[in-house]
Amino acid sequence: MPKHYLWAVGEGIKACKPGDLIGGRYLVKRDRLLVDTQPEQLPELPEEIPSAIVPYLRLFAYQLHVPQVYGLISSQTSKLSGDIWLLENAPIVKVTESLMPELADSWKGASAMRQLNWLWQIAKLWQPCMAQGVASTLLTPELLLVSGQLVRFLELQPDRKPPNLSQLGKLWQQWIDDADPTIANFLRQLCQQMVAGQVRQGEQLMGQLDKALAKSGRFYDRHIEIATGTDVGRARAHNEDACYPPDGTVFAGLPGVSACAIVCDGIGGQDGGEVASELAIAVLQEKLQLLPLHQANWDPLSLTSKLERAACAANDKIASRNDSENRQGRQRMGTTLVMGLAHIHEVYVAHVGDSRAYWITRTGCYQVTLDDDVACREVRLGYSLYRDALEQVAAGALIQALGITSSNTLHPTVQRFPVDEDCVFLLCSDGLSDKDRVEECWEAEILPILDGSINVAKARDRLIEIANTKNGHDNVTVALIHCQAHLKDNGNTLTELSVAPLDVPIELMPDAEDMPTDLTGSTALIEANSQLKTQLIQPPDRGKSLFSLLVKIVFLLGLGGVFAYFFIPPVGRAIDTAGESIFGKRGLINARSEPEKTVQPVSSELNYLEKGSFVELKNSGSGELGASGDRLDLRSAIGELTVKGTVPAGSVLQVTNKQLTPQGNWLELKVCSLPAIVPSNSPKPKSNKDFSTVSQPTISPSPAAASPSPSPDIKPTVAVETAKLQAGEIGWIQEKDAVSKVAINPTPNPTQQGKCAVGYDSTPNSN
């Protein structure tokens, strides 16, 4: 069995030295670097999860960058002065049993796109880390290590007080002198914007770096190879999986619509799962053909949205088929989805369910998708370590899949990966990924693709063979996307980049389905506007232009007079006096002769939902216990789909942060105090959870995929109850969802201020 390397944090590890065997199991190789000598055994797991460990769990979706908690060595077990927490997937080089290099040490000599890629990843992680109170990690160079293209965290550092992007800009300024000459000026300007406070949000920072990445990416030659295959396996009578391109296809070409691979694993038994997977492939293929994927229309936010909508369209097609055939309960068909699309300098990965995507580079194999199952959800909510969650009943039950319900409840995940060197993306159903088969075989079977010793077709066939011989319990489907990226011969003559103005609006790609389909018409778009001929515009008549100008001047003068009369008192009184002298008082129509009506200004969220302000959650007056109008549902992070917890009516909260995203403003709210008596029917789940008692959601008109007791053919959908937040906890909510439910409370009394009162630690508690 291969060695399992771990990074140790906690008080207990400080007393350990190389050669020590801790707890009769963990061998210290060097300072804080351990190897588990019994990896086949479950590690010690905690009864309760301390607040310092919770951010690791809630950042589980960012496992590419953040190490995960493996287990615990308690002080009772080790006889040491304190507990030791073990982190897996830390940036450790197994061959040398040492840490990977720090980003600051690898910065000098790296290519322009590699440097931009590293900074882009930091920008992407800024907001999630801020939400969990660990953004200081991004300001600590010794915690930022690199593995090829990837930025990896050694561990998380809690914030003593919330940092800002100005501090990040000051750190990046230290790297300007060693930046690639083509981006040095860009980085200098960007850091100046950050230090000056002009860049205040991670999304703004990502936008600036995205533009620079796109420009630097143009100086690479890119080539894509794709091979797909599917097999019924050794235990099933029929194949419910499907793939695109079709089974046995090998594609070679440039990034674009054709450089796409899809894997679907059907759910629902015979004459169900295979229908759902084929329907999904057909709809997605149709939607992809409508995407205007050319460089002039590159816009990552728009393309991400379109891929999400394509997944929802496939979902609705299958759900409609279920409804039309009156399929109920376990008869309803569905499918998982994992899709990879190479576009310009990036690879986009869309995902629903438990089919997976892996990213293989010369430095490692990384799982980039997170299974949509109960176990992963428990970790993301901060309730359980992953290895503990996997041991529970119904841990592998799916919480979403295509076709089971309407797209209103579907949340596809779309990620993007800038590519600056050769790599392979593996998409596969769980017929291959089960029992860690990919982690076992990637070095021998996939890595050779990168040095040319094996082609994608042969690697595909070997992976299917491994799935059948070492797993064999399910259908297996594999797609390999080999991305080749090499700097052009004239790549050393890159033009110097400059920073884009912050106020430049993002031009979204037009919906292909909204574009004219009749290209013969006079208003049709020809070749995406790239071949439009120059047209002679007839100049306007000078006489008409002069008359039009005079009319506009007279109109503006009149409008100015009206404004002055009503809003400048001396001018108004002068006009009234002149009017009285000419017409007399009875002849004057005085707009102020009647008492003015007092108009109460309509409160706007922009006026009071600002950082530092207090708000109170209103009572809807419905009288219904647990009514949605009498509570706020807060998320653990911006864009998070799962509700972290609820806050009842009468609670006082403080706005501790405000962030602008493409989907609108998000507010970070801290619970200051709760009402004295609050009826609640949503108790917080206990730490020792029994998944078999988790209730299945009521869904209309489409029932869930199956009951919480999974069969070999069915992956059920389940849900958990939502906890009530306590005073001192924080959460995120979209501003538009909060404004109708809260009232301004500019001067709450000390009792209402509670955990937000002066004297309390101002750092929000993210637990």
* Main sheet: strands, sense, barrel: 6 strands, antiparallel
> What is the CA-CA span between the terminal residues?
37 Å
> Count the strands?
29
Q: Which structural class should the secondary elements be placed in?
A: alpha+beta
Strand content: 15-25%
Low-confidence stretches: 503-545, 580-608, 622-626, 678-721, 761-767
Shape: globular
Whole-number mean pLDDT: 81
Order of neighbouring strands in the sheet with most strands:
2-3-4-1-6-5
Rounded radius of gyration (Å): 30 Å
Total DSSP helices:
19
Helix fraction, binned, reads 25-40%
What does this molecule look like?
This protein is an alpha+beta fold. Strand 24 and strand 25 (643-648) form a beta hairpin. The protein is globular. The longest helix has 26 residues, at 542-567. 27% of the residues lie in helices and 21% in strands.
Put the structure in a nutshell.
Helix content is 27%, strand content 21%.
Task: Describe the protein's topology.
Layout (H helix, E strand, L loop, with lengths): L3 E6 L11 E2 L3 E5 L2 E4 L17 H5 L9 E6 L1 H4 L5 E5 L3 E2 L4 E2 L3 H5 L4 H20 L12 E4 L2 E4 L11 H9 L7 H15 L6 H16 L2 E12 L9 E4 L5 E4 L6 E8 L5 H17 L10 H25 L9 E2 L1 E7 L2 E7 L3 E6 L2 E4 L6 H7 L5 H5 L22 E6 L4 E6 L1 H4 L3 H9 L10 H16 L4 E12 L54 H26 L1 H15 L21 H4 L5 E4 L13 E5 L7 E6 L3 E10 L2 E10 L56 E5 H4 L3 E3 L5 H4 L14
Antiparallel strand pairs: 1-4, 1-6, 2-3, 3-4, 5-6, 7-8, 9-10, 11-13, 11-22, 12-14, 14-15, 14-16, 16-17, 17-20, 18-19, 18-21, 21-22, 23-26, 23-29, 24-25, 26-27, 27-28
Helix pairs in contact: 4-7, 5-6, 8-9, 15-16
